[in-house]
Amino acid sequence: MYIKTQGLVLRETNYKEADKILTVLTREGGKQTVKARGCRRRNSPLAAAAQLLVWSDMTLFEYRDKRTLNEAEPLELFWGLRADVEKLALGGYFAEVAEAVAEEGRPDQALLSLVLNSLYALDKLNKPLPLVKAAFELKLLCVAGYEPLLDACAVCGALEPKEPRLDLAEGVLHCAACGLGDGAGRTLDESSLAAMRHVVYGDPKRLFSFPMDAPGMARMSTACEDFLRTQLDRGFRTLDFYHRLTDGGPTP
């Protein structure tokens, strides 16, 4: 059976002499494992589409629950992203996180749109990389069912908590004085809290459109990354690589 779809390559693994095994996030079928036969041969018509972070029109051949890439026409290769090693590393991180939360065979239009929009932001929008990264991490957690409660302090109900903190385990906001037991938290400020509320509750089409000062960006960046690590309970090799490029060493 032939299936026509659109898909983004989240992972590529060389297989045998000239093939690849691809993990593809498709529009209709969600995450799919796809074999691309002969794509590593010179002049293969599948070569361009069978690369990490390429969005393509695809024709898949399905037989006995296995899928093979039969035809592909790249729609977006994100050249601006590929020309910058830090942007490319961050795009690889987005792909690894998306693969981790996507379910095999389950369509997830919200996740697909988020990844594509985030790659577009890296490629075209000229936004600060920490801003794009933090917005992606926080919105991905919302899409995956880990949306934090940021509307008010979870203890006293204050709409604008004094010295606000995000509880990483519980995913709730609280004043510094209220506390929530011994759970790890990250300190926010007015700027970072406003930006995080924009990402969680605002228009998805304006996901990366919010003002940030340097201290607020630093707090938001730390909070969003640590919240993602805590909620997904794992690390990411691509994130460690990104930090080696930008910070000079991996995150603890």
Automatic annotation (TrEMBL):
InterPro entries: ARFGAP/RecO, DNA_rep/recomb_RecO_N, NA-bd_OB-fold, RecO, RecO_C. Coiled coil: none annotated. Residues 1-78 form the DNA replication/recombination mediator RecO N-terminal domain. One of its GO terms (cellular component) is bacterial nucleoid. Gene3D superfamilies: Nucleic acid-binding proteins (2.40.50.140), Recombination protein O, C-terminal domain (1.20.1440.120), Recombination protein O, zinc-binding domain (6.20.220.20). PANTHER family: DNA REPAIR PROTEIN RECO. This is DNA repair protein RecO. It comes from Candidatus Intestinimonas merdavium.
